[in-house]
Amino acid sequence: MMRKISGMVLTFICLLMLTACGDKDKLGENTCQVYYVSNSETKVEMHAHEMAAETTEGQLEELVECLSTNPEKLEYKAPLAMGFQILSCKLEDEKVQIDVDGAYLKLPVTTEVLVRAAIVRTLTQLPNIRLVMITVEGNQLYDNNGSIVGWMSAEQFIDNDGNEINTYELAKVKLYFATEEGTELIAATREKHYSTSMLRERFVVEELIAGPSGQIEGLYPSINPNTKVISVVTKDGICYVNLDENFLTVVNNVSTDISVYSIVNSLSELSNINKVQILINGEVPSSFSASTFERNLDIVTTVTK
User: Fold this and answer.
1) Of 72, 57, 76, which is closest to residue 1 (Cα–Cα)?
2) Residue 129 in contact with residue 91, Cβ under 8 Å?
3) What is the pTM of this model?
4) Is the pLDDT of residue 20 over 60?
5) What is the DSSP secondary-structure string of 45-103?
6) C-alpha gyration radius of the chain
7) Tens-place pLDDT, residues 233-244
8) Which strand ranges, in their side-by-side order, compose the sheet holding 185-195?
């Protein structure tokens, strides 16, 4: 089922849509798109594939086989036939974990991103597969900035020809920080250029962790600045924010609830988000009052002068 894999992909994080097996209106009921990497390793291209398997496990195996076989179109190559080996492929709770050998780490940075994009966008078309994680010999995969890659969805990869890499756009977002007492939140608008390789949802969370800029008095950090973002994924209006354990260590007398709603209220300002689920190392803490949260404006106040 599994074969070698080697360098290819250049894309990054932003947004795109694709979760069921292809566009049913255009492709047919049992058709999926398989993503391949261009020989120039600057983009991915999809090729329609008629599925034969009926079970999720069988379809996963079938798509992995497709990703391991070079297409007839010679300008493209299979992302799982590029110099590294798949050690295992596990499906559990709508999540697929693919473990590869150390040769994967030798892929060029941009090629490795494209490989991830091709794998994730192909596999998450299956109705019962929502997230994909790539590990290296059982260890977490890190990106070029030293951040854990974690669970990935199709929405994290934009469909383009590679020309947008390293471009930036101006974001204007509303962020909720804590009051001095740590019992309420205050909204503040922030404008900042950010890389289009980053999802706007992740940008919001990263800016909250960075804390208030100091330009507005009365705003205090709502989240422990040592908190690390493992992954941020949005699907069907729910944003899944996976953080490390530092999030649970409060700062400046800020309660965990205030920290939670700092994230929830800020993300809910984005038009594509209705609810937020916060995970700590992939799990919902038992101390949380709910598994998912909606915007709460009852704890929002204004700066007093």
Assistant:
1) 57
2) yes
3) 0.49
4) no
5) EEEEEE----SHHHHHHHHHHHHTS--SSTTEE-TTSSEEEEEEEEEETTEEEEEE-GG
6) 20
7) 999 999 999 999
8) 168-178, 185-195, 300-301
